[in-house]
Specification:
The protein is mainly beta. The chain has a domain at about 25-135: Distorted Sandwich (Deoxyuridine 5'-Triphosphate Nucleotidohydrolase, Chain A). The chain contains 1 helix and 11 strands. It has one helix spanning about 80-85; strands at about 25-30, 35, 45, 50-55, 60-70, 75-80, 90, 95-100, 105-110, 120, 125-135. The strands form 3 sheets. A 5-stranded antiparallel beta sheet has the order 2-3-11-6-8, with no helix packed on it. It has a 4-stranded antiparallel beta sheet with strand order 1-5-9-7. A two-stranded antiparallel sheet has the order 4-10. The two termini are about 40 Å apart.
C-alpha cells in the first residue's frame, strides 16, 4: 500500500510505505518455543517427553505447545536439518500443516530413517521447526481446461532431469 502526501508538503511528496504491524500469535504451552537467533525464520519445537525411536519407526511426539495462529496465516512444521543429516530423524509429513483454526497441542510425527541402533529423544530436546507464513487470498474457479501453453506444459515427474 503506497500513500501520497498532499501537495502542500512538497518536501514529503515521495511515496512511503506505512509500517505494517506484526500479527499477534497467542501461545499457550507447557513446552518450549524459541528462536536461537533473532533473524531465524522458524521457531524451535521441543519434545515434551522422552522416547526411544528405533530405525524405521515413527512416533507422534508431544511438544506441549498450543498456539493461536492469526487468520490468513499457516504454521508449517519442518524437520531440523542437522538432526536429519546426522541421525536420519525427520518430520514424516514435512511440512506438517497447522491451520489457523486449530487450537490443540502441536504434535510432531518423527521418523527414524537411519540405520543406527535407534535414537533416544530426550525431554526438552529440539525436534522440529515451526514456520509461520502469510497465505495469499486465492479464489478457485472451476474450468473445463487449463492453459498448457507454458515452457513445461503437462510434463511431470522427472521431466526436467534426474
Amino acid at each position: 500500500m503506497t500513500t501520497e502526501y498532499p501537495s502542500e508538503f512538497p518536501a514529503l511528496s515521495a511515496p512511503f510505505q506505512p509500517i505494517q504491524r506484526k500479527p499477534l500469535m497467542q501461545i499457550f504451552h507447557t513446552g518450549r518455543l524459541t528462536k536461537a537467533n533473532k533473524s531465524d525464520a522458524a521457531w524451535d519445537l521441543y519434545a515434551n517427553h522422552q522416547l526411544f525411536l528405533p530405525p524405521g519407526h515413527r512416533r507422534l511426539v508431544d511438544t506441549g505447545v498450543s498456539i493461536e495462529i492469526p487468520e490468513g496465516y499457516v504454521g508449517l512444521v519442518c524437520s531440523r536439518s542437522g538432526r536429519a543429516y546426522e541421525d536420519g530423524v525427520h518430520v514424516l509429513n514435512a511440512p506438517g500443516v497447522i491451520d489457523s483454526g486449530y487450537r490443540g497441542k502441536i504434535g510432531v510425527i518423527l521418523r527414524n530413517s537411519g540405520t543406527n541402533s535407534g535414537i533416544t529423544i530426550y525431554e526438552g530436546e529440539r525436534i522440529a521447526q515451526l514456520l509461520i507464513l502469510e497465505l495469499p487470498n486465492i479464489e478457485l474457479v472451476n474450468t473445463d481446461s487449463v492453459n498448457e501453453n507454458t515452457d513445461r506444459g503437462a510434463r511431470g515427474f522427472g521431466s526436467s532431469g534426474v
